[in-house]
Amino acid sequence: MIELLHDMTWVLPLRTPELTQLANAFTWLGYGTFLLFAVPIGFWGWNKHTFFRLLLLIGISAWLNALFKDIFQDPRPPLELRLDDRVGDSYGLPSGHAQLAVVLWLWLAYEVRRLWCWVACALICLGVCLSRLYLAAHDIEDVLVGALLGGVTLVIAARVKDLAWWREAHVGWHVLSILVIGGGSLALWPALEAPDYVPLFVGLLIGAALGWRVEGRLLDFGAAPQVWRRVLAALLGALGFILLQKVLKVVEAQLGLPAEYWQGLRGLLMGLFVTLAMPWLLVKARLLVARRTPAVAAGEVVGA
């Protein structure tokens, strides 16, 4: 039984050019390139509350996955079996793709609560998990533990979601919690150093929390009722996000900060861009609808 969980030679006879293309398509849905674009696009063009919660869940899940990987230090399947060369020298247990697929797609289905969405999201989640086995980027144990960890995260998130004390707490407490937990984990990381995406997501969570609170007080935007406005808001937001990445590369070269500090700063700026800067620009372009006027918002801030 133990051997079955780790031996991936059984996948070799199943491989065909067509299935390899399909597996690569599904596995792309679990990489940061997709996640860091899909969630902001949903935030601007669909439902900001749903996708803000997804942004937090993905950030927390990515941090947990990196932590458990370096605790277990379980190797991936042999190089000669793998068809995915993007994993580098990272460990295999638990599978980040499986964990984040469960968190992203099943939480989205939980929020929408429609049968069609449950079916579609479950199939995508299954496809991502199977793609990691097909490509031999993970063994069965990696995928099962990753999916289980994602499921536990969802159960906890569903219980925390409706707790008034958490929703109504001052943003300072949220930021302080992220700093203490994220910063403490970086200082006590089980390996020599954490992967660079850990400080990135710590900064992203802080920036998103701050931007969310400020945006709610100044704009409190909502998606426009017209579909074309939503689509255009999502497209312009995506283009803005691409431009931001290019600008950040230039800034990185100029500042020359140590990698972990730069990634934290980069994440902070990305979080503020997604939840505050881009919504403000899209409201100005009349592609998003602001529920607050600047005068009312200013009066509330002064009177607070």
Automatic annotation (TrEMBL):
Its EC number is 3.6.1.27. It catalyses: di-trans,octa-cis-undecaprenyl diphosphate + H2O = di-trans,octa-cis-undecaprenyl phosphate + phosphate + H(+). Keywords: Membrane, Transmembrane, Transmembrane helix. The chain crosses the membrane at residues 25-44, 51-71, 91-108, 115-137, 143-160, 172-191, 197-215, 227-244, 264-283. InterPro entries: PAP2/HPO (IPR000326), PAP2/HPO_sf (IPR036938). PANTHER family: AT30094P, SPHINGOSINE-1-PHOSPHATE PHOSPHOHYDROLASE. This is undecaprenyl-diphosphate phosphatase. It comes from Zestomonas insulae.
